[in-house]
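1st attempt posting a full record on here, be nice pls
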Amino acid sequence: MFLFLVGLFVSIFIGPLSLVIATTAVIFLIFYSNTLKRKLFWGNFTVSFVSSLTFIYGGIATSDFRLSLIPAVFAFLFHMGREIIKDIQDLKGDLSLNISSLPIRFGIRFSLAFTTVIFSFLIFLTLLPYLFDIFSLLYLIMVIIGVDLVLFYVFHSMWKDPSPSNLGRLSTILKIDMFLGLAAIYVGKF
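the predicted structure (as tokens):
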């Protein structure tokens, strides 16, 4: 709670919209830890939404709000797919704790298919900043090699072996892959 308060205090000095975003994130995270993480899809949505807010917050703080929407959408979709993979991995534990997750409610195959759709849509969207001349060719090269090919590998591997150990490995790969996505966005401006 102390860090929430520090974050809110600091956001006051950045501006009123930053305070609104920080307050929204804090409220969502408090609800998440108390109730939402046990609710079907709401836990996944909350983690993805708050992750995407970090880019919007940064965009407002640097007066580059419109450009921040691109990584915010990428972050939302990336985290949503990763959260569902983690839900499939944690299926047995969630069942024992009476948590309502996507794989518990709709099954593993549906959850894998939904994750594949999310990541496929994300791959499509990663091409648009280059095609609309927002980011450079270097961005396109980095995002295809460092992110899109990894996402293809992840959804191929999760269908081939949806065991908890493989899904845990894929979740770790995705966590590392976030840094490659951030690097692609950073260099894409040049």
